[in-house]
Amino acid sequence: MGVNSYAEIFTTLIGWHLYGVIWDVLASTGIVYLPFLWIIIENWKTAFIDGEESGGAAAGLRAIEVELYIGLFVMLIACVPNGITTLNRADVFYSPPATTAHPAPVTATGASPESTFGTTLGGTPPAVKVPAWWYTVMAISSGVTTAIISGAGLSLDDLRKVTEASRRASIDDPRLRYEAQRFYNECYVPARTKFLTSPLSTTAEAAITRYGADDPEWIGSHAFRDDPDLYPVMHAEREVPGWPVDPVRDRDQATAPIPPDWGRPTCKEWWEGGAVRGLQANIIAAVDKVSGLSSLVKTFGASLSAEQRADIITRTVLDKTRLTVIPNAYVPANDGVIKDTFSSTTVMIAGFFTTFFTWLATSVLKPALPFIQCLLLLGIYMLLPFVMVMGKYGVSSMMTGAIAIFTIKMWSVLWFVTDFLDDKLALAIYPDASSALAALTSFYKIGDPTKAMLLNLVVMSLYLALPALWSGLMAMVGVRASDLLTHAGTEAVTPIKNAGHNAGTIAGKATAWGARGLARGSRAIRARMDRDRSR
């Protein structure tokens, strides 16, 4: 039996377990037999009120028979838990759709849940009995949704995983954060100041041409690393833990009476590494401990060089610490304050809305929808005994429940289509991007938040609007089907009532004709007797 999420594996078992408990309670108290008593009383009352003109007792008895047979049939297939259609924990499975981010997902089962739900909800019964009708409905619904998703041929990239990993990426080690801050103050600020006030070197110009115009705007700038007058000749102002003392590089301190414990690497060595691992490699290693960003960047940035991918990971983490924000050196003081304040406020507001909608769409709305779906199905499964009993085991109640289950199951197809549109629209609005990762990087740049806000609004709307539209359409179908089934049941009894009504009418007329004949005969006999007396 296929389901649509990891949690639904266990909510399905819990729902049908509670169904069995509620049905046993209703059966032990005799409530399950009340609908049959109501059918008998209702049809007897109708036959008694309508009298012989509606068929009388014969029509009422036949109507009772028809409704009792229908009720018993519905009760047997849609109410009584059936051992033949038992749902075993190991037979309930969920197969996530393959994506570029996760090309070979593992199928989860109740026995091997592949999630933490197996630990917290694993105490559910290993097997539950399900009525044959509802087992068939679930099997058909799951089969249809799986067939549509697999047959659609739509490939998912799941680009949102990159943003989720980016939010989780952080430098938890305070010493590493302090080292990054030191590098910013001791290397980047002096190098950028010199870069802005000196003629552009050939090597720096070549680096900017290759890595983009914004390359000098972060501490790992290739222009600064390649320019022989910047990072290669600049040193850390104080000793950097982990770096050994170099007699040549640190000759001013190496011969001191008390030599230092650590050396002072050049800014290029400090960032790229040399005798020990560099700052960039340490930052990437720290990211790998808390996030899968490195593997995702490698997957989506296959067309990029290893160095470019390393830069993306490092910049993603360092941007959170705001190390790259420095005053504009070319703007006069007063105008600079006003301009920078206005620009910073505008960027901050735009960034807030972009981040908010992204967070709402990816961290709140999308993960919550499968939970809502599986919990709604749990509620339906659990409450079906009350629905069937109160519906007097009618076929319309059985069909209404089936339509409700099928409708909610189909939400997974609509969300699959929304995920596909989310991926493709994110790439379509940046057609000049060299790769999916480059498009995603442009998509979340705070400097141009309009496209990001637009797409997030559209995606959030689709996640909610498509299921709402589908549910509304199916609600109308369910009401119509219920009316047709009720009308069909009424029509099934109507011929019996009409036959009874006609039989009663004929019998009444025959009785009246016989009474009038007897009256005429009595009057004739009486008249003859009177004539005989008069003679």
Structure commentary:
By secondary structure, the protein is mainly alpha-helical. The protein has two domains: 6-162 and 352-494, no CATH class; 163-348, no CATH class. It is 68% helix and 3% strand. The chain is built from 19 helices and four strands. Strands 1-4 form a two-stranded antiparallel ribbon. Strands 2-3 form a two-stranded antiparallel ribbon. The protein starts with 5 loop residues before the first helix and ends with a helix.
Strand content: under 5%
Strand order of the largest sheet: 1-4
Uncertain spans, ≥5 residues at pLDDT below 50? 324-344, 499-508
List the total number of helices: 19
Helix content: 55-70%
Number of strands: 4
Outline the biggest β-sheet: 2 strands, antiparallel
SSE pattern, N- to C-terminal: HHHEEEHEHHHHHHHHHHHHHHH
